[in-house]
Amino acid sequence: MASPVTSMLTASLNLSNISSSYCRFSAALFPASDNFSARVSISQKCEGHLRNVLRFSSAIRRSGVVLHSVAQKSNPSGSTDLQLGGNGAPTEGVVVLVIGGGGREHALCYALKQSPSCDTVLCAPGNAGISSSGDATCIPDLDVSDSAAVISFCRKWSIGLVVVGPEAPLVSGLSNALGKAGIPTFGPSSEAAALEGSKDFMKSLCDKYGIPTAKYKTFTDPLEAKQYIKERGAPIVIKADGLAAGKGVIVAMTLDDAYEAVDSMLIHGIFGSAGSRVIVEEFLEGEEASFFALVDGENAIALESAQDHKRVGDGDTGPNTGGMGAYSPAPVLTKQLQSIVMESIILPTVNGMAAEGCKFVGVLYAGLMIEKKTGLPKLIEYNVRFGDPECQVLMVRLKSDLVQVLLAACRGELSRVTLDWSPGSAMVVVMASNGYPGDYEKGSIIKNLEEAEFVAPFVKVFHAGTAMDLDGNFIATGGRVLGVTAKGVNLEEARDRAYQAVEAINWPGGFYRRDIGWRALPMKQIAEK
């Protein structure tokens, strides 16, 4: 006869199914249309479900059992690891709310759920894939642009940590409001988020505190901008000052391309107010890399390195995108270079922001160029949140308790934190809708997603832009739709597993790059000889 704990465990294995069923009436919760008024209110349809999820998680915690659902996939028998709190005692779990609904947020939900100190992960608004995977319970009707609504929700459901994924809520001040309400929040204030919200602000900070970056000048007058471009010559880089959904940077290889970019932003207003001011920047030749650091206002600790692939086409061709794939670690960022980045870029930024009266608490994502002529890093841009798709490869490699790490950042206690990473490598291949990054198709059916996760060990499909149709099929609703992620003992194995999973997915309406990792693999092969 099963023990009470075993019986509770057996039922708890369906916790992900509860989340899944929450999404399965997705015609109301995650409809293919953007008609949010058609969605059912939290109080009418979701509140009872949410109470059940939280009550059940708390019961499991009180029993001393911690569930690690990732073990279900890695163990072919389907058994689940059981772990007790310290000395066999029950642990008090943290209810975490993740703000956002893309691939980055799915990866954060996945990692947070693995944290031993996590009770329950909620995600607002989330997406159909996050919910059906069981990595979080999604709250699609919580208006995350309404700070008062988010605060009320956090108080009602005893949220112990809020993790803000996208940049827009940060720039608009969600962290400020939550902080004033006494709710632990991982993510910078609106003042500190200006590092991403205004490229001119970031460049000015670099000038003031001696942070290496590309030479630049800021303009609001198109004629003055064109005159400067003519003097500098091509290639040259034109950037919208504000947030432009990852599309505000144009690498102009000719003067005519540069003039056209200036006109599109300053005259035609293609990016609205975000492009009312432009930064004209020198073109840096070298290899790009992504560097992430967790910051608590005064201290910073580096995450593992990663490298993104911005261009849409194989061989780094075509227009820039939000990112078509990534891998970690990035061989171009040697230990020596990582130390240089921390000392010359990250720490001066942290200290400079504190000196300016807007301490930074959150993750600093430095887009770097390792210059070909010097071999040294220069700062291209800052983002004030985890990168997407870099977050996916970092989260599948992280072994530390992410909840406790982020809470330490919120409390100013990162000096006492060390991070533990799984060995080997990870790779994510982004599958995007046909036409992306331009006008893309919506509503195409995606099949074999569950099967893809079992074609090889350590494969995880993160959802960025999916919904469900009335027949229960996943459909594409965004430009970048899936992040097919895999781990391996080395980058070659991670790549092979990721592409095996990609090829198992049946989606005629999508495409992907076939050369993710092409820069690192030759370097790795040389190093291994």
UniProtKB/TrEMBL annotation:
<feature type="domain" description="ATP-grasp">
    <location>
        <begin position="203"/>
        <end position="411"/>
    </location>
</feature>
<comment type="similarity">
    <text>Belongs to the GARS family.</text>
</comment>
<comment type="pathway">
    <text>Purine metabolism; IMP biosynthesis via de novo pathway; N(1)-(5-phospho-D-ribosyl)glycinamide from 5-phospho-alpha-D-ribose 1-diphosphate: step 2/2.</text>
</comment>
<dbReference type="GO" id="GO:0004637">
    <property type="term" value="F:phosphoribosylamine-glycine ligase activity"/>
</dbReference>
<dbReference type="InterPro" id="IPR037123">
    <property type="entry name" value="PRibGlycinamide_synth_C_sf"/>
</dbReference>
<dbReference type="GO" id="GO:0009113">
    <property type="term" value="P:purine nucleobase biosynthetic process"/>
</dbReference>
<dbReference type="GO" id="GO:0005524">
    <property type="term" value="F:ATP binding"/>
</dbReference>
<dbReference type="InterPro" id="IPR000115">
    <property type="entry name" value="PRibGlycinamide_synth"/>
</dbReference>
<dbReference type="InterPro" id="IPR016185">
    <property type="entry name" value="PreATP-grasp_dom_sf"/>
</dbReference>
<dbReference type="GO" id="GO:0006164">
    <property type="term" value="P:purine nucleotide biosynthetic process"/>
</dbReference>
<dbReference type="InterPro" id="IPR020562">
    <property type="entry name" value="PRibGlycinamide_synth_N"/>
</dbReference>
<dbReference type="InterPro" id="IPR020559">
    <property type="entry name" value="PRibGlycinamide_synth_CS"/>
</dbReference>
<dbReference type="Pfam" id="PF02843">
    <property type="entry name" value="GARS_C"/>
</dbReference>
<dbReference type="Pfam" id="PF01071">
    <property type="entry name" value="GARS_A"/>
</dbReference>
<dbReference type="InterPro" id="IPR013815">
    <property type="entry name" value="ATP_grasp_subdomain_1"/>
</dbReference>
<keyword id="KW-0067">ATP-binding</keyword>
<dbReference type="InterPro" id="IPR011054">
    <property type="entry name" value="Rudment_hybrid_motif"/>
</dbReference>
<keyword id="KW-0436">Ligase</keyword>
<keyword id="KW-0547">Nucleotide-binding</keyword>
<dbReference type="InterPro" id="IPR011761">
    <property type="entry name" value="ATP-grasp"/>
</dbReference>
<dbReference type="InterPro" id="IPR020560">
    <property type="entry name" value="PRibGlycinamide_synth_C-dom"/>
</dbReference>
<dbReference type="InterPro" id="IPR020561">
    <property type="entry name" value="PRibGlycinamid_synth_ATP-grasp"/>
</dbReference>
<dbReference type="GO" id="GO:0046872">
    <property type="term" value="F:metal ion binding"/>
</dbReference>
<keyword id="KW-0658">Purine biosynthesis</keyword>
<dbReference type="Pfam" id="PF02844">
    <property type="entry name" value="GARS_N"/>
</dbReference>
<protein>
    <recommendedName>
        <fullName>phosphoribosylamine--glycine ligase</fullName>
        <ecNumber>6.3.4.13</ecNumber>
    </recommendedName>
</protein>
